[in-house]
Design a protein that fits this description.
Blueprint (H helix, E strand, L loop, with lengths): L3 E5 L2 E5 L12 E4 L5 H7 L3 H6 L10 H15 L3 E6 L5 E11 L4 E8 L8 H17 L3 E7 L3 H9 L3 E12 L2 E10 L5
Parallel strand pairs: 6-7
Antiparallel strand pairs: 1-2, 2-3, 3-4, 4-5, 5-6, 7-9, 8-9
């Protein structure tokens, strides 16, 4: 069981040091809130974020607030969740999200975006481990999915490290910048190692 700190009934924060397979006790997930918006605004302008996510390029004015409001609305009805990834001093390292939660089918889509200064330090791997544990332990998920751009090799390596399995390529999965982009689907079940 993953120990969590409950800020509100539907909001969960997870402390990494409690999980035996997470070596870095300083990475934690906390419910995303207004205090994280300035860092999120900066993250939304990162070239890799614009290239590999569904964030519009360029983001419209106020997009961070619009994004957060959508997640807050989903949080209230249990169909979405957003966490800030924080370091040992409470420094913002990125976001970990569940953009789609199907409670009846016990299936979730998960995702993560790491701030440029925190990349290549294992933050994405640790955050995905925590997010995965939260989905299985707190929501009783039976299937987790990651949708990854076919060109995002770093994200594919993270998925593999955390035990996700490549299932296939979805042709023309996403339309952005007047182009259709293929995406890969990776999944994990509770029985996967």
């Amino acid at each position: 069981m993953v120990a969590v700190a409950r800020a509100r009934p539907a909001l969960l924060g997870i402390r990494a040091g409690i999980l035996p397979d997470v070596p870095d006790p300083d990475i934690r997930l906390v419910p995303f809130d207004d205090s994280h918006l300035p860092e999120m605004e900066a993250l939304l302008n990162d070239p890799d974020v614009l290239r590999f996510t569904r964030v519009p390029d360029p983001p419209p004015p106020g997009y961070a607030r619009t994004w957060f409001d959508g997640y807050e609305a989903g949080r209230l009805i249990g169909t979405r969740e957003a966490f800030a990834i924080l370091g040992p001093d409470g420094d913002f390292l990125g976001v970990a999200v569940a953009p789609r939660i199907d409670r009846e089918g016990r299936t979730l889509e998960l995702g993560y975006v790491i701030a440029p200064r925190a990349r290549e330090r294992g933050v994405a791997t640790e955050a995905l481990k925590l997010l995965t544990a939260w989905a299985f332990d707190e929501l009783g998920a039976r299937r987790l999915e990651l949708l990854i751009s076919v060109d995002n090799d770093v994200s594919k390596r993270v998925a593999a490290k955390v035990g996700y399995v490549y299932e296939g390529t979805m042709r023309q999965m996403h339309f952005k910048q007047d182009l259709w982009e293929d995406g890969e689907i990776w999944s994990r079940l509770p029985t996967d190692a």
